[in-house]
Every structure is written in structure tokens, then in C-alpha cells.
Amino acid sequence: MESVPRRIKTVRPMAAAGKILAYAALGLFTLVTVYPLAWLFINSFKTTNEFQMNMLGLPVDWTVDNYVGAWKIGEFDRLIGNSLLYTIGATIGITVFSLQAGFAFAKIKSKATPLIYGSLILGILLTIQSLMVPLFLEVTILDKLLGDLLRSIGLYGGREFKLFHNTRFGVLLIYIGSALPVGIYLSTAFIKGIPDAIIEAAQIDGAGYYRIFWSIILRMSAPIAVTMCILNIPGLWNEFALINILVSDAGLKSLPLGIFKFSGSLSSDYGKQFAALVIGMFPMLAFYVAFRKQITAGVAAGAMKG
Amino acid sequence: MNKKTFFTLLFAVVFSLCAYSQKTTLTVLDYIDATAPGYAEVQSVWQRFMVDNPDIEIVKEDLSNEPFHQKLAAYVAAGTVPDVVYMYPSGRSTILHDQKLVKDLEPLLGKEYLSAFIPAVLDTAGQKGGYLAELPQSICYSTVVYVNTKLLSDLRLKVPKTYKELRAMVPRLKAKGIRPVLMANKDDWVMQSCLFSTIVGRMVGDDWIDRALAGKVKFTDKEFVKALEFVQTMYKDGVLGRDTIQISYGEAPALFAAGKAAFFIDGDWRQNSFLTDPKSGVALIDPAKQETDFQFINFPAIPGEKNPGAVSAILGCGYGISASIPAGSAKEKAAVRLVKYLYSREVQTTILELGRYITSRKDVTSDALEPFIPKMKAYYASTSKTCYVLDGALDTSVYTPLNLGLQEIGLGTKTPEQVARTVQDALDLWLAAHKK
Question: What's phi and psi for B296, nearest 5 deg?
Fold first, then answer.
């Protein structure tokens, strides 16, 4: 009985110290995360000249000209539409195709499954940088071959056929394709955890694979679907390397390419550059604020099942 | 969805995505960023061409920095170099020159048209492929000493003609809290490109560099080590502060404009940072002060220099025409028309007024120039000899350790001999890889 109060006496100060340490560390991490964003936001209201003279203080004259200029020069009205299309379209595609493939690999037995699964998963090891030039070659060659074929059978009369290169369809296709290996890996692992008995019961009731997928698997895979969305949306929104290679027309470009316009090699219009970054960052912040609970739950679900 | 419906839909999508045009379409890859001085005006220049030439459609892509080079590499790999492409006389555009992916502009533009340009830019020896692959828009002087003459005269100091005179003013400037020489050495290329190339040109010479590239002399030889030692001396003498290694390229002009330094060493392109922004009407240095308080000079005489007055310079970038365009075709004629327009007196006058560069056209003048622009022209006229910019003469694998080594000398973490050894090792590797 005597040992209990003694233990309380010795543990309490340690616990308090631990708490202080934990809060100090968390406070520091918060500061490290929030300060650059706050600094960026504040400096986006300075002229470039003022920024060069006063990098840390508050603006003397708060100006919104940077935002007006950045929006106009960066053609953000058009770019945001494209970014939304690419992000939402590719996320839906990645999620649906990954789950379908995951269902097939996890629940439809075939001798070819390990080979096909392995070859698709191999894509995880490939970096975007190593794919840039081969993908560009692929889309230009495919366009040429398909154009020649359609021309030869009289179905196309134009000069330059474009389906994959410099088109929104091509961007979506490659965005979806490049994210499928991770998506398939996560989906397969998750769907393996769904009891076979449920699928067998549905089959006994006369449901085919498509019906089973849309009515049972898709609904039961909601946690992993959310995880995939969370993993992909920020990456797709900020994607630069592939779209820089895949499109040339200004009307097809996305927000990161517009933001990059403000980064010069020999000079930088910092005011507009910061304003452009804030504009580009805002939708992602809004996304996080709106869906933070689902994001936390989704990441946790993905971590456990994936 | 049955197969028939699927294919009908697919074809409908295909046709809706395909564009068809009767115009001659020219694809252009240009190097520009939205922060470049006069960006909007440059865009207007292109717009004007499209309005004046309704039979030509321009599909233009603007990129800069690494994404420009990545995109160009992809185009080259796919064999689809844009019809008109912005390119360097060597360096990152080497592949366009070596594989002759762009046409020789000399016969296309014609002798009469080219006679309007200064002969130095037409010298094909300066281009990697040995032919006029691009028409240089300018000659780029990579070393200019920007002098705050008002600050010097307030302290009763004179513009130095020798390094000794420059060193002698250090104590008086420092006593007043003024930095003697400002350089943006945080970016590793600045010291090499904007000062060391001139030091090497003066103390070692281009011939010596050529011999080093041929493997006949070594960077560890005393001539080159002495040039590196001079950089070390500048730091030791306090002419250059070690804290310049913390100054980024974007910060330096404002510091100089605010009178924080008596001298600022950078390339000729940097003068446009001080000019009036056409949009905001604000200048880092007011035009009236540009006229009275500032001067551009060559770097003062270096003790033991072999080539007095030499300054590092390189042919500027320009536009080339893709070799894949059939000779005599409507597309080739359109590309030539575009290139001639871009180098026309009218366009080059606009560019000069914006202070983007000092054009290589001889017949371009304007009354609307801010004082720094004619002052830069006068600086060009005052220099009699040019020498290599080292990053234009050496391979990336060789000048990268040099760039870093120059920073290390500044920080005091490496000796000139150690840096010379690193550069020679890199050159040996490059020579071994390129042995025929």
C-alpha cells in the first residue's frame, strides 16, 4: 500500500515534464509548418521592390495588385478548370480501375494472376523522371500510327491527328495509368480481407462479377477508396513534370505550370510569384479543412488494411 | 454497352478532339518567364505578328529554366523539334547543333538581311555546330562592375583602375558600414560566370583553356591555381565579404540600389533589374540617379595579368528553325518570315527599350532609353578584348565542381590547389569519356 503514493509522487513530475516536452515539440512542428505559409501569405501583399528591402516585416502598403496580375498573366481562370478536371477525373479513374483490378486479383482465381499482378505492381518502382521521355515518345508515336491508320481507311482527313499528345484525354489516361500500380496494390490487399463467403453468397443468388463489384465490393471498399483519393488528390493537383511534357497548348495546361511562369532564372517578380503560390495553395487548404475528418479516418483505414 | 455503340462513341470522341486548320501552323518553343522585364510587351510582339500574318498560325509554348530543357529533350528524343526554337549557341543546346536538328540560317535569311547585325554574332566559330544554327540576339558580357559613383565621391574615393586601388578603399568603406564589392555568391554559378571567367581570361587566357581541353596542360598547373588564388586573395583582403555566399541572386540588386555596397559585380543582363517596370512605373534605381550616380566599368587591372582589359563574353541566345521542315515549303517560308520579324528593327527597338538585352542589330536606336542602357552600350565600346565564359567553354561535369570549389574557397573550406585538383579530376573523366 505504501508503494502506490510513492509511485504517484515520482511519476507526476515526469508526466508533466513529458507533457511539456510533447507540447513544445508539437508547437515547434506547428510553427515550422505554419510559419512558411504565413510568411508566403504576408509577402504576397508586398511589391517586389518592398519585398527585396523588407523580407521579414509586414507590408507598409498592402497591395492586391499581385493577385490581379498573377491571375491575369498566369491565366488562372482557365488553368483552375483544367486542374479540377485532371484532378477529379484522374482520381475517379484511378479509384474505380484500381478497385476493379484489386477485386479481380483478390477474388477471381487464375494461374495468370501472379504474373499480371506482379507486372502491374512493378510500376511502383518506376520514377516519373524515368518515364517522362518514354511517355512523350509513346503518345506522339501512337498519335501518328492511329492517324495514319484512320487516314488509310478514309475515316480521318486532317493533317495532324491528336488523341494522346496535347489533349486532355491523353493527360487523364497517363495520370490514371501512372497511379494504378499503387492503387492496385492497396486495393488488392484490402479486398483480400473481404470474406469470400459474401461473394459466394452473391454468386449463389445469381449475381455476376460486375454486379458483385458495383453492389458489394465497391461499397465495402469505401475506406480504401477514400485513402486512394487522399493519396492522389494533392499529387495530381500539384503535378508538374508529366503535364509539362504532355501538353503544349496553353489552353490545356494546369495550375502548377501557370505558377511556374513566375519563376525566372535571372530575376523574379516575387510579389506575383507569391500571389500565384497562394492561389495555387488555397484549393488544397480548403480541401483539407473541408475533409479533415475523412482524411484522418481514411489514412488510418489505409494504414491498417493496406 | 455493346461493341457497336462503344466504337461509335470512340470515333465521335476522336473526331471531336481532332483539330483541322487551313493555315500554315508553326510550333514555337520560347524561353521566357512571366517575371521577365516587359513580359506583357513581348507577348504583344507575338500577337502583332499573328495579326499581321493571318495566314500563319503560331502555337507557342513559353517555358524557362529546367522545364524548358526537359521539354526540348523530349522533343529531340521524339524527333519533333518545334518549327522555331529558342536555343543557346552551345551549352544546353549542344544536341541541336551536334545532330544538326536546326537549319543553317545564313542562306535562309540572306546576306543582305544579316548585314544589319554586328559581325561578331555572325561568326560561326562561336556556335557549337560551326554554322549559324541560331542568330544571337546579343553578345552577353558576363562581367560588369556596377559602380555607385555618388557613394564613392561622398567618401572622396575615386573609381579604381587597379585591384590595388580597389583594395585600398576597403577600410574606409567598411568604416562607414558599406560593403566594398557585392556579389550574389549563394548561387554557385555567379562567381564563375560573372568574375572568375574574366580573372582566368586575364591571368591565363583562352588559348590555355583550349590546351587544357586538349589535355596538354592541367588545371593543377600554377597559372590556373594563381587565378584561383586571386579569388582567395579578394576574400582575404576583405574586398569580397565571406557573407556574400549567403546573398541570393534575387536579393543583390536591391541591396546595391539601397547603397549597401560601392560595387556590384554581375552580368550585363542585370542592368534591367534596376530599370522602371513598365506596369508599376517603379524603378529600383530612379532614371535620374541612373544618369548621375552610377557607372559601369571593367574589372580593375589584376596584378600579374597577361591579357589586360579582357572581359568574359559569350554569344547570346536566339531562334533557330527546325531542320525537319522541308526546304522551300510554305512552312519554311513562314518560319523565315517569323524569324525575320523577331529580329526586325521594330521588334528589336521594343526589346531594347524594355532593357531585356542590348541587341546585336546595328541600326537600333531609341530616344526612350533609360540611362543604364546607353551606359551599357558605352561599356561594351570601352572593352577591347573578350575571353571565354567558362561555363560556355567547359562541359557541365567540369564547371560544376569549379562553381562549388569557388564557393568553398570563399568559405575557406578548400584551398585553390584542392579546387584545381577536383576540376582536373573532372576534366580527366570527361576527356576519358570523349576519347575518340
Answer: -110, 130
Domain B21-136+317-356 and domain B141-313+384-433, same fold? Reply is yes
Most A CBs within 10 A among B7, B8, B13, B17, hence the mutation to make, goes to B17
Q: Where residue A213 sits, what CATH number does that domain have?
A: 1.10.3720.10
Radius of gyration of chain B (CA): 24
Examine residue A25 and state whether it is found in any structural domain, yes or no.
no
- Which residue of B lies nearest to A166 if distances are taken between CA atoms? B17
- Count CB-CB contacts under 10 A for residue B422: 19
Would an 8 Å CB–CB cutoff place A269 in contact with chain B? yes
Give pLDDT tens digits for B93-143. Answer: 888 998 999 999 999 999 999 999 998 899 888 888 999 999 999 999 999
Beta bridge partners of B379: none
Find out whether A254 and A83 touch, Cβ atoms under 8 Å: yes
CB-based contact (8 Å) between B1 and chain A?
Answer: no
For residue A32, how many other CB atoms are within 10 A of its CB?
A: 9
| Residues B411, B353: Cα–Cα separation, whole Å | 40
**Distance between CA A78 and CA B116 in Å, rounded?**
42
- What is the grid cell recorded at A289? 479543412
Which run of H or E residues covers position A127?
none
A63 in reach of chain B (CB within 8 A): no
The CATH label, of 3.40.50.2000, 3.40.50.12240, 3.40.190.10, 3.10.50.30, for the domain at B141-313+384-433 is 3.40.190.10
Let me know if residue A18 belongs to a domain.
no
**Overall domain count for chain A:** 1
Residue B29 parent element (H or E): strand B24-31
CA-CA distance, B128 to B117, in Å (whole number)?
20
Separation of alpha carbons B272 and B256, rounded Å: 14
Interface contact flag, B34 A270, Cβ < 8 Å: no
Cβ of B284 under 8 Å from any chain A Cβ?
A: yes
Query: Which candidate from A47, A161, A262 shows the least CB-CB separation from B34?
Result: A262
pLDDT tens per residue, range B358-388: 899 999 988 888 999 999 989 998 888 899 9
Q: What is the pLDDT of residues A8-30, one digit of tens each?
A: 555 677 888 889 999 999 999 99
Find the domain containing A220 and state its range.
76-305
Q: What is the helix, strand, coil percentage profile of chain A, to 5?
A: 80, 0, 20
Nearest CA among A36, A51, A177, A180 for reference residue A104 = A180
Confidence of residue A61 (pLDDT cuts 50, 70, 90): confident
Four-way CATH pick for B21-136+317-356: 3.40.190.10, 1.20.58.340, 3.30.559.30, 3.90.870.10:
3.40.190.10
Widest Cα–Cα separation across chain A? 97
Q: Cα–Cα distance between A210 and B367 in angstroms, integer?
A: 75
> Domain extents for chain B?
21-136+317-356, 141-313+384-433
Q: Assess if residue A275 is contained within a domain.
A: yes
Residue A46 is assigned to a structural domain of this protein: no
pTM: 0.76
Cβ distance B35 to A273 less than 8 Å, yes or no, reads yes
Is A49–B27 a contact, with Cβ atoms under 8 angstroms apart?
no
- Kindly report the average pLDDT of chain A as a whole number: 87
Q: Does B331 touch chain A (CB under 8 A)?
A: no
Return d(Cα B35, Cα B279) in angstroms, integer.
Answer: 12
Q: Tell me whether A208 touches chain B (CB under 8 Å).
A: no
